[in-house]
Amino acid sequence: MFELSDPARITAGFVLLAAITVTTGGYLLTRISQGKMEATGFQKSFYRAGHAHAGVLIILGLVCLILTEASSLTGGWLWLSRTGVLISAILMPAGFFFSAMGKGRTQPSAWITLLWIGAVFLISGLAACGIGLLVS
Fold first, then answer.
1. What gap in Å lies between CA 46 and CA 58, rounded to an integer?
2. CB of 95 closer than 8 Å to CB of 113
3. Using an 8 Å Cβ cutoff, are 95 and 114 in contact?
4. Which of 27, 38, 87, 112 could connect to 121 by a Cys-Cys bridge, CB 3.0–4.6 Å?
5. What is the distance between the alpha carbons of residues 62 and 40, in angstroms, rounded to a whole number?
6. What angle do CA 93, 27, 125 make, to 5 degrees?
7. Angle, nearest 10°, between helix axes 41-68 and 75-100?
8. What is the pLDDT at residue 3?
């Protein structure tokens, strides 16, 4: 029987509870599609992208968390492999949503920086996990 370490188990528990917040993005998209909230084409596309990235990256992050348990990584590499993709699951959707907020917005605001910081965590977390598995 495969067993998660305590840090991995606790992280997974918090992530699953936090994933409930993804429904707020779905609620927002529902309000927009029903005409109960105005949004520009740019905002609609960024809100959709934020919602989709949140769901996909949470799943990918949980997969990396579990796979990290099969590696021999330690220290910062272990942390990055276990949590890098999960951090991107927060930052990237936040970059999409926050940069599109504001009445009539047609261009991203400076909040778009969160998207690129999240991309760095995504790439770093995936690389740490993949390399960790290959060298273990």
1. 18
2. yes
3. yes
4. 87
5. 33
6. 20
7. 170
8. 87
Comparing 18-22, 55-59, 104-108, the range with the smallest average pLDDT is 18-22
pTM strictly above 0.90: yes
Per-residue pLDDT band for 60 (boundaries 50, 70, 90) equals very high
Closest CA to 61 of 124, 132, 3: 124
Query: Which CB contacts under 8 angstroms, 24+ apart, belong to 42-47?
Result: 42/100, 42/105, 42/106, 42/107, 42/108, 43/100, 43/105, 46/96, 46/97, 46/99, 46/100, 46/108, 47/96, 47/97, 47/100
Using CA atoms, how far residue 25 sits from 79, 128, 129, in Å, is 28, 29, 28
